[in-house]
Structures are given as C-alpha cells and as structure tokens.
Specification:
Elements lengths: L5 H13 L2 H8 L3 H15 L4 E4 L2 E4 L1 H29 L4 E7 L8 H10 L4 E7 L2 H8 L5 E6 L8 E9 L1 E5 L14 H4 L4 E4 L19 E4 L2 H9 L5 E4 H9 L4 E2 L9 E8 L5 H9 L5 H7 L7
Parallel strand pairs: 3-4, 3-5, 8-9
Antiparallel strand pairs: 1-2, 5-12, 6-12, 7-10, 7-11
Length: 308
C-alpha cells in the first residue's frame, strides 16, 4: 500500500514555497490543523522527519528535500494527466499559459482575453512574462503553451514551431543630463566603458542567457524588465538601447537624447511559437487569433512610455 498521497505532496510543496504551515493553509484553503495533521501523518507513515520546526518558520530536512524534489515531478505528471483527460473529454484545455517577453504588456492581450472568455469559460488563462531566452525556456519546459513576441531565433534542438510576427529596431539613448549626451559621436567602447549600462536580466534558468555585448569590466545596472530599463535611462542612471517606438516618443518629449554608436544593435525579429504536435481547442483558438493582422502593432503600442 502506498504511503504517499498527492494531497500530502501538494501540502509539502506549498509549505516549502510559502515558508510556513499557516501560509500554505491560506494558499490551499485548508485550516492549519489539517496542514499539521497531514504532515504529521506523512512523517509517521514514512518514518522520517520531513520538516525542521523553528517557530513559525519551517525548513525541509535532507529527507524532505529529496521527497519534494521527486514529488514535484509526480505533482506535475498528475496535473498534466488531469489536463489531458479533461481535454479528451471536452476538447478544451483546463488551463492555457500565454508567454510573452516582458518588454510588452499583458494589457496588449485584453481584447483577446475578452473574446476568448466569450467562447471558452472553462479554460483558465495564465499570462506569463519572461525576458530574452527565458521566453523560449518557458515554452520548452512547459511553463507556457504559446509564446507571443518571443525575441530572436529559438534554441537549437527543435520541438517547437515558430512563425515571425514582426521586426523591431533599437535606438541608443541617454537622458539629456547624462555625460554621454555631450560626448562627440559616434560613441565607441572606450567612451562607453567609463559609464554605467542599464540591462535587462535574462530570466532563463537552464538555457544560456543572452549576452548584451558589454566590454569586460563594464559597470551595469541589471533590471527585471524593459519597462524598468526605460525608466532608469530616463532618470539618467545609465545608457543602453531601447525599442525604437518608445525611444522616439521619449526623444520627442525631451526625455532622452539619441546618440550614434560605433556598434549599433541590429533589429530583432519576434516570434509566435508553440510546441510541435500539441494543441487542444484553446491553443488552436489563441494560435489563430495571434495570426490576425495588426497583432505586432498592438504589442508595440504597449511598449514602455507608450501605453496608456
């Protein structure tokens, strides 16, 4: 007889992520006594201590870490099986993840979400923002089912279908009060190395992160999204390339100054992508919707400094 249950694994997972029994109870909508009882029973059935208690905070023991490491695979497999069974029965996925580069905004998909809910209320939507290679990794690791606006060519190895949505140019810009604004152009590496770059952090966990081509020893301020990068460059805290539409808007308002550089950033192609050989009714709906004319212009309309 099995001494493990998916419910117990789910509770252990929630405790580890949330840091306490009470926080796990709130996430799972269970009373604290149920959480405590389930953990105690699990430890008794297995004959091992899963958690070390330290006041309200709890930490996994080594045995608990091993249990959860493998247990998360079981939870994911059970979740995938549940989705497949329901999809076979209804044709619609129980949940669909839409991934997009954090350069864009989830609000760009507002009209699409409204139209989708009108025909598919049984499918839950998740909007997931990633950056650079992190978008492709989210698709390959099944954290999302569809990528909209993934930058650059996908990783080698295949397993997915990708179609170009559009191409975006970039402009090198600094705030008017930044020292580089007064430097003679074109700016070379020697001039840039004395100043701080503002760069977006790649959210990839396993894939090699995208490099930004900075000289060795270059000071850099790393931020979580293009929106943050835009704000910091407008604030004069560093230099860098920005998407042309938002850079031009900021330049026209006197917030930024364009500078020519010896090594300009090439234009970037953005893609619509999904895993090959997969697809229920919800993925098919979104895939067709994202192929409609004007989608890429809608994404660009929500770039930093342009939305609103």
């Amino acid at each position: 007889m099995l001494r493990l249950s998916l419910e117990a694994l789910q509770i252990v997972d929630a405790i580890d992520r949330r840091g306490s029994f009470s926080a796990a109870g709130k996430e799972l909508h269970r009373v604290p006594s149920t959480i405590s009882y389930t953990v105690a029973k699990l430890e008794g059935d297995l004959g091992v201590q899963v958690f070390e208690r330290n006041g309200p905070r709890v930490l996994l023991t080594r045995a608990g870490q091993e249990l959860l490491k493998e247990g998360r695979y079981l939870l994911k497999a059970a979740h995938d099986l549940e989705q497949r069974v329901r999809r076979v029965a209804s044709g619609w996925e129980t949940e669909l993840g839409i991934g997009y580069d954090s350069m864009f905004s989830a609000l760009a998909f507002e009209s699409d979400a409204r139209a989708f809910y009108a025909v598919a209320q049984q499918t839950r939507l998740r909007m997931v923002a990633e950056a650079l290679s992190g978008t492709w990794e989210a698709l390959l690791e099944r954290r999302v089912d569809l990528l909209v606006g993934a930058p650059g060519d996908g990783p080698a190895g295949g397993g997915y279908v990708a179609q170009p949505l559009g191409t975006l140019s970039f402009v090198f810009a600094v705030a008017p009060g930044h020292p580089l604004a007064r430097e003679p152009a074109p700016l070379g590496r020697g001039q840039l190395q004395h100043h701080r770059a503002v760069v977006v952090a790649d959210t990839a966990r396993q894939l090699a992160p995208r490099t930004v081509g900075l000289p060795l020893g270059q000071d850099a301020l790393t931020v979580p999204s293009m929106h943050s990068k835009y704000d910091y460059q407008v604030a004069g805290l560093g230099f860098g390339f920005l998407p042309e539409p938002c850079a031009r808007a900021a330049i026209a308002r006197g917030l930024l100054v364009e500078k020519q550089v010896e090594e300009p950033k090439p234009a970037e192609t953005f893609y619509l992508a999904w895993r090959a050989g997969e697809g229920g009714a919800a993925l098919h709906w979104w895939r067709e919707r994202m192929r409609e004319p004007g989608l890429f212009q809608r994404l660009l309309a929500h770039l930093p400094g342009r939305a609103g």
